[in-house]
Structures are given as structure tokens and as C-alpha cells.
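[retry 2/3] Carbohydrate kinase, FGGY family protein: previous attempt timed out, resubmitting with same input.
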Amino acid sequence: MVAKATGMERSTQAGSISSGRTSLGIEFGSTRIKAVLIDSQTYETLASGDYGWENRLEDGLWTYSLDDIWTGLQSAYAALAADVEERYGQPLATTGAIGFSAMMHGYLAFDKDGELLVPFRTWRNTNTHEAHEKLSELFQYNIPERWSIAHLYQCMLDGEEHVPSVAYFTTLAGYVHWKLTGRKVLGVGDASGMFPIDPKTHDWNKRFIAQFDELEESKAQPWKLTDLLPQVLVAGQDAGTLTEAGAKLLDPSGVLQAGIAVAPPEGDAGTGMIATNSVRVGTGNVSAGTSIFATVVLDHSLAKFHPEIDLVSTPAGEAAGMSHANNFTSDLNAWVSVFSDFADALGVKVGGGELYSALFNAAIGPQADPDAGGLLNYCFYSGEFLAGLEEGRPVFARGPESRMNLANFMRAQLFGAFCPVTIGMNIMTRQEDVKVTSMVGHGGIFKTPRVAQKILAGAFNAPITVMSTAAEGGAWGMAVLADYLGHADMPLEDYLESCVFKDAQSTTEQPDPKDVEGFQAFFEQFEKSLPIERAAIESISLER
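[retry 2/3] Carbohydrate kinase, FGGY family protein: success.
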């Protein structure tokens, strides 16, 4: 959301742009690539641009092509630059710093000549279950199916021909950063979704690397794991500058200048922590989009190994526990599209924001039963580890005596979307006694006031705060991380509190006992009825 400004404020902002007192963040989300330019003094958004894209299922694996990546990046940046030109009457020639972030995990593997060996395999793929089980058992540390090392090891187990030729593998953010700066580095938060991080050194866990290299499949390779991994950096460290070739790749028009400092590339979990001021011990956030994850910065090490909990790092390297669900808004958006088609059929023109607002508010309206009236919805477009599913099929189900109305239908949509992530959160807070001092929600679903916030408060039985920056999301958070390059003399958490969020406005929704009770009843039925989902997987083809 671009800040509304008076004539004098706009003049000041234009001066910030021309002098480079700005910071640019670009994040590759699952369905949208967004670019955000912020003022380095006020942290307000000055301009933005985006580009919609979708992953494709090819040969049973979810992927984006390299052409998709670069077309999307250039288009999002061009939209941002056009927004700057329109608002401030000047080209965007430079900025104080730049940062790139993306959805975490996945597998981008390159040979010694920098050529991609196999199509990009995204976090959404769950074909790595064998690797997840074997590595988790070996390390006694959860290695989720999404993690880059699980993808690499699964390729080794499957005897894929490209494996001996791997010279480097990284995440999407790491790949983009490499091509624009020439540096093979990764922010520690994103790195923690590739391979375990040692919380003391803020670097790769050397003991686990040694164990990996001793595997029979590893001994058969011409490389050692450390030869393939990027260098790990914490927030504020030097990650290189935009090269001449990188500037032309980002902005083919040639207006953007080279030499701009670039922050360590981060994952969407890390930028979510930044956007919600959740990097201090005990703070947590829920980032909701195509996938959803709830992250809490840990006050102590977990007593047991839990496959449902990812152990990741903040951008400063602090240990955090994450409950990650692969599925969230894809099914919800599909149903909203059906309602949009219905409105069109009636000749009624309804904007997207108005439609979402009306449907979401129905879920907490007087016609909604606390437990969604016995309706069930499974939003599984893809596999979901937390639910024990290797594949997914979206399913809506109800009994003949269920109370079917719009309010309950939408409540079931939201309840069902929040169910998987709740599994991991319950483990952290109930079994491991992780203390949470604050939980902040962010992402597009929180644009509609109160609704998702109220539903989530009931699901987690905890207060949920939404800040005025909630809709800005990861691109804004990445812009803040880029700006931190100039403030790295103070701890990241102090910088956020004393500079970025000192005047931030927020609202907090306390859990309503009726919502808590209703969600619990829904959740129990959700888990009991999972055989419905498994039957759908067996009987409905994955591809049309």
C-alpha cells in the first residue's frame, strides 16, 4: 500500500528517490512477484509493482521455468519503475540498497558452467519422503520434505543422472542474488531451509555435514557437500553489489545504475519475521499466503525431535520453531472466483476487495455457527506432511443434517485452511511449553479487517495482532532488511523497534471462547474425517 502524501511530503519523497535515500525489496511469492520501494527515513512505501505468475505441474513435479523467473522479475521491477515515474516525475536510477527474497526451500542445481541441470523443483513437491525420513533419523533433527537437502538426497536415492554433475545448489532467492551480484551467498534464515544451521556459529551444522558425507550415496559422488552450498550470511553483512550485468538483467531499459549494495538474500519466513517485528525471543508471526507458516523465536531448545516442527533461523541467526503447511489460499481463491462468476452471471459488477470482504465477514456474522455447522473443507491442492498426505485434492464435504449456508461455508473455508498449521503450533505450545509473548499475522488474508484475525485467535486460542504494515508482506520486509545494511551497528531487534516500528499502529484480537470451542470441534472432525481426503487422492486423477 503506497502512502498517501501531501504536496510537501511528495516533494520530500521525490528528493529521497533522486538522492537514493530509499531501499528496494523484491519478493518471489508463490503467485505474485512484488517489488516495494520504501523511504529510508520513514519506512513508508513510496512505490510498488507486481507480476502474477503460477507454478506448473510437469512430469508430476511443481516448477517454474527460468524464463518465468526473469520475465517476472523484470516485469515487477518495470511496474515499480513506472509507478515511480508516474508519482514523482522522475526515473528510478538508483536506490540506497536492494534485497531479494523468495519462497523458501526447493531445489535449483547447477553444473560447473552454471547451467541448470533439472527444472526448478519448488517447496510444493512432496516426492522426497524417503529422504526426509532417512535424514531426520540420521541427524535426529527434522529435515522436512521441502528442504533443499531432502531434494538433493532424494535425487541421490533415485539415482538421477544429473547428481554427479552438481557443482552448486541453492534456493530461488539465492539464485537471483547470484545472477545479479556474482556472489553465491544466502541469508541465514533462507539457508536454514536448505540444511540445518548451528545456532552458535550461525553457519552450516558441520557435524551434520560430516554425517551426510559418510552416507554410502554421498561417498559415490565426486563432490563433498560443503563444495555445493552457498556461503551463509546474517542480516547486515556484506553480500555484494549490483553488477553492470545484473543491473541490465533487472532493468533492461538501462536506467538503473550498477554498484548498489545488495542485502543477503532471504526466505519468506525471514521477511515475514521482519514485517511483523518478530525476531526477538518469544515473539511469533503467522505468514499466510499460498502456503502458511507460524513461527516462534524459541526461548529454549526443544526437548524432543518433532517431525511436525521445522527448526529455522531468524535473519539474525536466532533459532525459531516453525509449523509449515503447504496449502492455504489456493482453494479459497478458487471458491471466491466461483462467487465472482455468479455475480457476473447476474450482471452485478463486484470488485475483488469488495467480494472478499463480503464473503469473509459472512464467516463471523450472525448466521455462522461456531463449528461451521458441520461443514468440512480440505484445501489440499498439493501434498501436506502435517496431515500425512503425499498428494492433495481439494474437497468440500458435509453430512445431510449439516447447516449449509454461506456463512458456514465460508467459516469452513477459513477453519479448514488454518487446521494444518495448528497441528505444529499445538506441539510447540502444549508439548514443548514454548512461551509466546506476541503473535502477529501478516499477508493478504488480513486485509479484510478482523475476520482472519478473529478466526486465527480462535484456532490458536491466543491474541493475534495485525500491524498497519500487515498487507505489505515480504517485499516490504526485504526492503527493511536491505536498509539494515546501513544500521548493522545495532542488533536487528533493536533496529526494528527503535527505527522501523516505533510509530507503528496495530490492532489485537483476543480469542472469543465461542470461536475457540467451535474451532476445536471443527478440528477434531477435520482430523477424524481425513480418510475422505485419502479416498479423493486414490479416486481423482492428479492431472486432468
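[retry 2/3] Carbohydrate kinase, FGGY family protein: The mean pLDDT is 93.
[retry 2/3] clearing retry counter.
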